[in-house]
Design a protein that fits this description.
The protein is built from 13 helices and 13 strands. It has 425 residues and is an alpha+beta fold. The chain has three domains: 147 residues, no CATH class; 63 residues, no CATH class; 196 residues, no CATH class. Strands 1, 4, 5, 8, 9, 10, 11, 12 and 13 form a nine-stranded mixed beta sheet that branches. A two-stranded antiparallel sheet has the order 2-3. Strands 6-7 form a two-stranded antiparallel sheet. The termini are far apart. Its main location: membrane. Pfam families: LssY_C, VTT_dom.
Protein backbone atom coordinates (compact mmCIF):
# COMPACT_ATOMS: atom_id res chain seq x y z
CA UNK A 1 0.00 0.00 0.00
CA UNK A 2 2.83 2.37 0.82
CA UNK A 3 5.03 1.69 -2.21
CA UNK A 4 5.79 4.73 -4.33
CA UNK A 5 2.73 4.46 -6.58
CA UNK A 6 0.49 3.85 -3.58
CA UNK A 7 1.86 7.00 -1.95
CA UNK A 8 1.18 8.90 -5.16
CA UNK A 9 -2.44 7.72 -5.28
CA UNK A 10 -3.05 8.53 -1.63
CA UNK A 11 -1.78 12.09 -1.99
CA UNK A 12 -3.56 12.53 -5.33
CA UNK A 13 -7.01 11.49 -4.10
CA UNK A 14 -6.58 13.53 -0.92
CA UNK A 15 -6.13 16.63 -3.11
CA UNK A 16 -8.80 15.80 -5.71
CA UNK A 17 -12.20 17.40 -5.10
CA UNK A 18 -14.74 14.70 -4.23
CA UNK A 19 -12.50 11.76 -3.27
CA UNK A 20 -10.68 13.98 -0.78
CA UNK A 21 -13.77 13.85 1.42
CA UNK A 22 -12.93 10.21 2.12
CA UNK A 23 -9.18 9.80 1.56
CA UNK A 24 -6.88 11.28 4.24
CA UNK A 25 -3.35 12.05 3.14
CA UNK A 26 -1.75 11.84 6.58
CA UNK A 27 -0.92 8.09 6.57
CA UNK A 28 0.72 8.41 3.15
CA UNK A 29 2.70 11.50 4.12
CA UNK A 30 3.89 9.90 7.36
CA UNK A 31 4.90 6.81 5.38
CA UNK A 32 6.90 9.01 3.01
CA UNK A 33 8.69 10.47 6.03
CA UNK A 34 9.47 6.97 7.29
CA UNK A 35 10.92 6.08 3.88
CA UNK A 36 12.95 9.28 3.80
CA UNK A 37 14.60 8.26 7.08
CA UNK A 38 15.67 5.04 5.34
CA UNK A 39 17.15 7.07 2.49
CA UNK A 40 14.27 6.51 0.03
CA UNK A 41 13.53 9.89 -1.54
CA UNK A 42 11.06 8.62 -4.14
CA UNK A 43 8.24 8.42 -1.59
CA UNK A 44 8.49 12.15 -0.86
CA UNK A 45 8.62 13.00 -4.57
CA UNK A 46 5.55 10.86 -5.28
CA UNK A 47 3.36 12.36 -2.54
CA UNK A 48 4.33 15.87 -3.66
CA UNK A 49 3.59 14.98 -7.28
CA UNK A 50 0.27 13.39 -6.33
CA UNK A 51 -0.75 16.42 -4.26
CA UNK A 52 0.27 18.81 -7.04
CA UNK A 53 -1.67 16.97 -9.76
CA UNK A 54 -4.70 16.59 -7.48
CA UNK A 55 -4.72 20.34 -6.81
CA UNK A 56 -4.36 21.08 -10.52
CA UNK A 57 -7.23 18.80 -11.52
CA UNK A 58 -9.45 20.25 -8.78
CA UNK A 59 -8.63 23.76 -10.01
CA UNK A 60 -9.43 22.85 -13.63
CA UNK A 61 -12.68 21.17 -12.53
CA UNK A 62 -13.76 24.32 -10.74
CA UNK A 63 -12.76 26.54 -13.65
CA UNK A 64 -14.65 24.44 -16.20
CA UNK A 65 -17.75 23.33 -14.30
CA UNK A 66 -17.91 25.99 -11.58
CA UNK A 67 -21.04 26.52 -9.53
CA UNK A 68 -23.16 23.66 -10.94
CA UNK A 69 -20.55 21.16 -9.77
CA UNK A 70 -20.35 22.93 -6.42
CA UNK A 71 -24.11 22.68 -5.90
CA UNK A 72 -24.14 19.00 -6.82
CA UNK A 73 -21.27 18.31 -4.43
CA UNK A 74 -23.02 20.10 -1.56
CA UNK A 75 -26.21 18.19 -2.27
CA UNK A 76 -24.27 14.91 -2.30
CA UNK A 77 -22.22 15.76 0.81
CA UNK A 78 -23.99 18.42 2.95
CA UNK A 79 -21.02 18.55 5.32
CA UNK A 80 -19.13 20.51 2.65
CA UNK A 81 -21.47 23.53 2.91
CA UNK A 82 -19.57 25.03 5.82
CA UNK A 83 -16.23 24.43 4.11
CA UNK A 84 -17.45 26.12 0.90
CA UNK A 85 -18.85 29.09 2.81
CA UNK A 86 -15.67 29.57 4.78
CA UNK A 87 -13.59 29.17 1.67
CA UNK A 88 -15.60 31.79 -0.24
CA UNK A 89 -15.04 34.24 2.59
CA UNK A 90 -11.31 33.53 2.70
CA UNK A 91 -10.94 33.76 -1.07
CA UNK A 92 -12.77 37.09 -1.12
CA UNK A 93 -10.81 38.65 1.74
CA UNK A 94 -7.44 36.89 1.78
CA UNK A 95 -7.09 35.03 -1.48
CA UNK A 96 -3.30 34.65 -1.54
CA UNK A 97 -3.14 33.59 2.11
CA UNK A 98 -5.96 31.09 1.53
CA UNK A 99 -4.09 29.50 -1.36
CA UNK A 100 -0.86 29.35 0.64
CA UNK A 101 -2.09 28.18 4.02
CA UNK A 102 -5.30 26.28 3.26
CA UNK A 103 -3.64 22.92 3.90
CA UNK A 104 -3.12 24.04 7.48
CA UNK A 105 -6.80 24.95 7.95
CA UNK A 106 -8.47 21.54 8.09
CA UNK A 107 -11.58 20.93 5.95
CA UNK A 108 -11.11 24.22 4.07
CA UNK A 109 -8.26 22.52 2.21
CA UNK A 110 -10.77 20.16 0.59
CA UNK A 111 -12.31 22.89 -1.56
CA UNK A 112 -9.75 25.71 -1.98
CA UNK A 113 -8.31 24.53 -5.34
CA UNK A 114 -11.82 23.94 -6.70
CA UNK A 115 -13.02 27.35 -5.48
CA UNK A 116 -9.93 29.03 -6.92
CA UNK A 117 -10.93 27.68 -10.32
CA UNK A 118 -14.58 28.65 -9.82
CA UNK A 119 -13.57 32.25 -9.05
CA UNK A 120 -11.31 32.37 -12.12
CA UNK A 121 -8.08 33.00 -10.24
CA UNK A 122 -5.25 32.94 -12.75
CA UNK A 123 -3.57 29.59 -13.23
CA UNK A 124 -0.09 31.00 -12.61
CA UNK A 125 -1.11 32.62 -9.31
CA UNK A 126 -2.90 29.47 -8.18
CA UNK A 127 0.01 27.21 -9.11
CA UNK A 128 2.64 29.30 -7.34
CA UNK A 129 0.84 29.76 -4.04
CA UNK A 130 -0.86 26.37 -3.88
CA UNK A 131 2.52 24.73 -4.48
CA UNK A 132 3.95 26.65 -1.52
CA UNK A 133 0.95 25.49 0.51
CA UNK A 134 1.54 21.91 -0.61
CA UNK A 135 5.14 22.08 0.61
CA UNK A 136 3.98 23.45 3.97
CA UNK A 137 1.05 21.10 4.48
CA UNK A 138 2.68 17.92 3.25
CA UNK A 139 6.05 18.85 4.67
CA UNK A 140 4.82 18.93 8.26
CA UNK A 141 3.61 15.31 8.12
CA UNK A 142 6.68 14.13 6.22
CA UNK A 143 8.76 15.78 8.93
CA UNK A 144 6.85 14.02 11.71
CA UNK A 145 7.10 10.71 9.88
CA UNK A 146 10.86 11.18 9.66
CA UNK A 147 11.10 11.97 13.37
CA UNK A 148 8.94 9.00 14.33
CA UNK A 149 11.17 6.72 12.29
CA UNK A 150 14.30 8.19 13.85
CA UNK A 151 12.87 8.22 17.37
CA UNK A 152 12.28 11.56 19.05
CA UNK A 153 14.77 10.62 21.76
CA UNK A 154 17.49 11.43 19.23
CA UNK A 155 16.34 15.05 19.34
CA UNK A 156 16.66 16.07 23.01
CA UNK A 157 14.75 19.35 22.81
CA UNK A 158 11.89 17.79 20.87
CA UNK A 159 11.86 14.78 23.18
CA UNK A 160 11.69 17.09 26.20
CA UNK A 161 8.87 19.07 24.60
CA UNK A 162 6.84 15.96 23.83
CA UNK A 163 7.42 14.63 27.35
CA UNK A 164 6.27 17.96 28.76
CA UNK A 165 3.07 17.88 26.68
CA UNK A 166 2.24 14.34 27.79
CA UNK A 167 3.00 15.14 31.41
CA UNK A 168 0.86 18.29 31.39
CA UNK A 169 -2.02 16.94 29.29
CA UNK A 170 -4.64 16.97 32.04
CA UNK A 171 -3.72 20.45 33.23
CA UNK A 172 -3.79 21.66 29.63
CA UNK A 173 -7.20 20.07 29.11
CA UNK A 174 -8.51 21.77 32.25
CA UNK A 175 -7.11 25.11 31.09
CA UNK A 176 -8.61 24.78 27.61
CA UNK A 177 -11.98 23.80 29.09
CA UNK A 178 -11.85 26.89 31.32
CA UNK A 179 -11.05 29.14 28.36
CA UNK A 180 -13.93 27.65 26.36
CA UNK A 181 -16.29 28.15 29.29
CA UNK A 182 -15.14 31.76 29.66
CA UNK A 183 -15.68 32.39 25.95
CA UNK A 184 -19.17 30.88 26.01
CA UNK A 185 -20.04 32.91 29.09
CA UNK A 186 -18.75 36.08 27.45
CA UNK A 187 -20.70 35.47 24.25
CA UNK A 188 -23.93 34.78 26.12
CA UNK A 189 -23.27 37.52 28.70
CA UNK A 190 -23.48 35.34 31.78
CA UNK A 191 -23.89 37.13 35.06
CA UNK A 192 -21.06 36.75 37.58
CA UNK A 193 -18.86 35.28 34.86
CA UNK A 194 -15.56 35.69 36.71
CA UNK A 195 -16.66 33.81 39.88
CA UNK A 196 -18.17 31.03 37.76
CA UNK A 197 -15.07 30.61 35.61
CA UNK A 198 -12.80 30.79 38.66
CA UNK A 199 -14.83 28.15 40.49
CA UNK A 200 -14.74 25.89 37.43
CA UNK A 201 -10.97 26.29 37.06
CA UNK A 202 -10.41 25.57 40.75
CA UNK A 203 -12.63 22.47 40.61
CA UNK A 204 -10.87 21.27 37.46
CA UNK A 205 -7.42 21.69 39.00
CA UNK A 206 -8.48 19.94 42.21
CA UNK A 207 -9.74 17.05 40.10
CA UNK A 208 -6.45 16.95 38.19
CA UNK A 209 -4.54 16.93 41.50
CA UNK A 210 -6.64 14.13 42.97
CA UNK A 211 -6.36 11.98 39.87
CA UNK A 212 -2.60 12.53 39.67
CA UNK A 213 -1.87 11.43 43.22
CA UNK A 214 -4.50 8.77 43.81
CA UNK A 215 -5.13 7.31 40.34
CA UNK A 216 -2.14 7.74 38.05
CA UNK A 217 1.01 8.14 40.17
CA UNK A 218 1.59 4.40 40.55
CA UNK A 219 0.82 3.59 36.90
CA UNK A 220 4.32 3.00 35.61
CA UNK A 221 6.47 0.08 34.58
CA UNK A 222 9.75 0.03 36.45
CA UNK A 223 12.93 -1.98 36.04
CA UNK A 224 15.86 -2.17 38.41
CA UNK A 225 19.00 -0.68 36.83
CA UNK A 226 21.63 -3.34 36.23
CA UNK A 227 24.24 -1.40 34.29
CA UNK A 228 27.66 -0.83 35.82
CA UNK A 229 28.26 2.69 37.10
CA UNK A 230 30.91 4.79 38.78
CA UNK A 231 30.51 8.01 40.76
CA UNK A 232 31.94 9.86 37.78
CA UNK A 233 29.27 8.52 35.41
CA UNK A 234 26.25 9.43 37.54
CA UNK A 235 23.79 12.26 37.12
CA UNK A 236 23.54 14.36 40.28
CA UNK A 237 20.23 16.05 39.59
CA UNK A 238 16.65 14.92 40.17
CA UNK A 239 13.50 16.61 38.89
CA UNK A 240 9.93 17.03 40.19
CA UNK A 241 8.61 15.66 36.92
CA UNK A 242 9.63 13.48 34.00
CA UNK A 243 10.47 16.42 31.74
CA UNK A 244 13.60 18.50 32.48
CA UNK A 245 11.73 21.82 32.32
CA UNK A 246 11.44 21.84 36.11
CA UNK A 247 14.11 23.25 38.39
CA UNK A 248 16.49 20.52 39.47
CA UNK A 249 16.98 19.28 43.01
CA UNK A 250 20.34 18.04 44.15
CA UNK A 251 21.49 14.44 44.53
CA UNK A 252 24.06 14.61 47.31
CA UNK A 253 24.50 11.14 48.86
CA UNK A 254 25.90 7.85 47.52
CA UNK A 255 25.52 4.48 49.23
CA UNK A 256 27.27 1.31 48.13
CA UNK A 257 25.71 -1.87 49.44
CA UNK A 258 22.67 -4.09 49.14
CA UNK A 259 20.22 -1.45 50.39
CA UNK A 260 20.33 1.74 52.47
CA UNK A 261 17.12 0.74 54.28
CA UNK A 262 18.90 -1.02 57.17
CA UNK A 263 21.20 1.94 57.74
CA UNK A 264 18.36 4.47 57.67
CA UNK A 265 16.16 2.60 60.15
CA UNK A 266 19.17 2.04 62.44
CA UNK A 267 19.68 5.80 62.47
CA UNK A 268 16.09 6.35 63.59
CA UNK A 269 14.67 7.49 60.26
CA UNK A 270 11.07 6.59 59.44
CA UNK A 271 10.31 5.05 56.05
CA UNK A 272 7.69 7.05 54.18
CA UNK A 273 5.13 5.86 51.74
CA UNK A 274 5.28 7.41 48.27
CA UNK A 275 2.52 7.86 45.73
CA UNK A 276 4.40 5.96 43.03
CA UNK A 277 5.51 2.96 45.11
CA UNK A 278 2.46 2.54 47.37
CA UNK A 279 -1.24 2.20 46.62
CA UNK A 280 -2.49 5.15 48.67
CA UNK A 281 -6.16 6.09 48.79
CA UNK A 282 -7.74 9.10 50.47
CA UNK A 283 -8.27 7.36 53.81
CA UNK A 284 -4.66 6.17 53.84
CA UNK A 285 -3.53 9.72 53.10
CA UNK A 286 -5.53 11.19 55.97
CA UNK A 287 -4.15 8.53 58.32
CA UNK A 288 -0.58 9.34 57.31
CA UNK A 289 -1.21 13.03 57.90
CA UNK A 290 -2.52 12.27 61.39
CA UNK A 291 0.63 10.27 62.07
CA UNK A 292 2.85 13.21 61.05
CA UNK A 293 4.35 11.11 58.23
CA UNK A 294 2.76 12.46 55.04
CA UNK A 295 3.65 10.66 51.81
CA UNK A 296 6.72 11.93 50.02
CA UNK A 297 6.06 13.37 46.58
CA UNK A 298 7.94 11.76 43.73
CA UNK A 299 11.22 13.02 42.39
CA UNK A 300 12.51 11.58 39.13
CA UNK A 301 16.13 10.62 38.67
CA UNK A 302 16.91 9.49 35.12
CA UNK A 303 13.16 9.30 34.55
CA UNK A 304 12.50 6.98 37.53
CA UNK A 305 10.69 7.83 40.77
CA UNK A 306 12.55 7.09 43.99
CA UNK A 307 12.74 3.49 45.16
CA UNK A 308 12.29 4.47 48.80
CA UNK A 309 12.06 7.54 51.02
CA UNK A 310 12.66 8.31 54.71
CA UNK A 311 12.17 11.17 57.14
CA UNK A 312 13.29 12.09 60.61
CA UNK A 313 10.47 12.63 63.12
CA UNK A 314 8.98 16.06 62.52
CA UNK A 315 5.66 17.74 61.85
CA UNK A 316 3.55 18.29 58.75
CA UNK A 317 5.41 21.44 57.72
CA UNK A 318 9.02 20.87 58.72
CA UNK A 319 11.03 17.68 58.40
CA UNK A 320 14.31 16.31 57.08
CA UNK A 321 13.81 13.69 54.39
CA UNK A 322 15.78 11.67 51.88
CA UNK A 323 14.87 9.79 48.71
CA UNK A 324 16.90 6.86 47.38
CA UNK A 325 17.23 5.47 43.85
CA UNK A 326 19.17 2.37 42.85
CA UNK A 327 21.60 3.66 40.25
CA UNK A 328 23.13 0.39 39.04
CA UNK A 329 26.04 -1.86 39.97
CA UNK A 330 29.29 -0.37 41.20
CA UNK A 331 31.88 -1.10 38.54
CA UNK A 332 34.73 -1.95 40.93
CA UNK A 333 33.01 -3.62 43.87
CA UNK A 334 30.16 -5.35 42.00
CA UNK A 335 27.66 -4.14 44.61
CA UNK A 336 24.48 -2.09 44.15
CA UNK A 337 25.09 1.65 44.12
CA UNK A 338 22.37 4.00 45.35
CA UNK A 339 21.99 7.75 44.92
CA UNK A 340 20.14 9.84 47.47
CA UNK A 341 18.72 13.35 47.66
CA UNK A 342 18.54 14.69 51.21
CA UNK A 343 16.99 18.04 52.05
CA UNK A 344 14.77 19.83 54.56
CA UNK A 345 11.08 20.67 54.16
CA UNK A 346 10.47 24.20 55.42
CA UNK A 347 6.81 25.10 55.05
CA UNK A 348 4.47 24.90 52.08
CA UNK A 349 4.41 26.53 48.66
CA UNK A 350 2.24 26.57 45.53
CA UNK A 351 4.28 25.18 42.66
CA UNK A 352 4.27 23.41 39.31
CA UNK A 353 4.98 19.73 39.85
CA UNK A 354 4.88 16.82 37.42
CA UNK A 355 2.32 18.44 35.14
CA UNK A 356 0.01 19.90 37.79
CA UNK A 357 -0.29 23.01 39.94
CA UNK A 358 -0.22 21.83 43.53
CA UNK A 359 0.81 22.59 47.11
CA UNK A 360 4.07 20.96 48.19
CA UNK A 361 6.69 21.45 50.85
CA UNK A 362 9.14 24.27 50.26
CA UNK A 363 12.71 22.96 50.20
CA UNK A 364 15.45 24.71 52.16
CA UNK A 365 18.00 25.64 49.46
CA UNK A 366 20.96 24.76 51.72
CA UNK A 367 21.06 21.04 50.95
CA UNK A 368 24.65 20.72 52.18
CA UNK A 369 23.50 21.26 55.78
CA UNK A 370 21.31 18.14 55.77
CA UNK A 371 24.00 16.14 53.97
CA UNK A 372 26.54 17.04 56.66
CA UNK A 373 24.08 16.29 59.47
CA UNK A 374 23.57 12.81 58.00
CA UNK A 375 27.35 12.28 57.85
CA UNK A 376 27.70 13.34 61.48
CA UNK A 377 24.83 11.06 62.54
CA UNK A 378 26.36 8.07 60.75
CA UNK A 379 29.79 8.69 62.28
CA UNK A 380 28.24 8.92 65.76
CA UNK A 381 25.62 6.16 65.65
CA UNK A 382 27.20 3.74 63.17
CA UNK A 383 30.98 4.18 63.47
CA UNK A 384 31.54 0.92 61.62
CA UNK A 385 30.25 2.58 58.43
CA UNK A 386 32.76 4.52 56.34
CA UNK A 387 31.97 8.01 55.09
CA UNK A 388 33.84 10.30 52.75
CA UNK A 389 33.14 13.14 50.33
CA UNK A 390 33.37 13.04 46.56
CA UNK A 391 33.57 16.23 44.49
CA UNK A 392 30.82 15.36 42.03
CA UNK A 393 30.38 18.77 40.40
CA UNK A 394 31.43 22.40 40.70
CA UNK A 395 29.84 24.55 43.37
CA UNK A 396 26.28 25.55 42.48
CA UNK A 397 24.27 28.67 43.27
CA UNK A 398 20.51 29.20 43.20
CA UNK A 399 19.61 30.19 39.63
CA UNK A 400 17.01 29.57 36.94
CA UNK A 401 18.00 25.89 36.76
CA UNK A 402 18.41 25.08 40.47
CA UNK A 403 16.39 25.65 43.62
CA UNK A 404 19.39 24.95 45.84
CA UNK A 405 23.00 25.85 46.43
CA UNK A 406 25.84 23.45 47.20
CA UNK A 407 29.59 23.07 47.32
CA UNK A 408 29.13 20.22 44.82
CA UNK A 409 30.35 17.48 47.13
CA UNK A 410 28.50 14.19 47.60
CA UNK A 411 28.55 12.14 50.80
CA UNK A 412 29.74 8.59 50.05
CA UNK A 413 28.66 5.90 52.54
CA UNK A 414 29.87 2.29 52.45
CA UNK A 415 29.35 -0.92 54.31
CA UNK A 416 32.49 -1.63 56.37
CA UNK A 417 33.80 -4.25 53.97
CA UNK A 418 33.34 -2.03 50.93
CA UNK A 419 35.90 0.64 50.24
CA UNK A 420 35.13 3.49 47.90
CA UNK A 421 37.26 6.14 49.53
CA UNK A 422 39.83 6.07 46.74
CA UNK A 423 37.15 7.67 44.56
CA UNK A 424 36.34 10.33 47.16
CA UNK A 425 38.23 13.55 47.68
Amino acid sequence: MFESFGLFLGAFFDALIGPNLFVPAEPFLLAAGYQLYDGIVSGVLMVLLGGFLGDQLSYLTGRKFGKPAQQKLMKWQPKTRRAFARCRHLMATKGTAALTFSRLLGPVAWVVPFMAGTQKISWARFTIFSSIGLMLGAGQFIFWGYLLAAGVEQYPYLDAFMTMLVEHKYSLMATVATIVLAWVGYVYRWKKLLPKVSAFFLAAMLTVNYSHYFWFADNFIDTTPTTTVTPLSLNYKAYPGKSPIFDAQGVNVLFVGETPRTMMTSLGWIENQTFSRNDIDWNDYVGLLKGQTPPVSDLFWNGRPQDMAFQLPGDLLKRAHIRWWQAGIDERLNQPMWVGAISYDDGLTLTMYSGIITVLHSIDPNIDAERDKLASLINTELPEMTTAYYQAMPALAVDEDHDYYSDGRVLVVNDPQLVLTHQAH
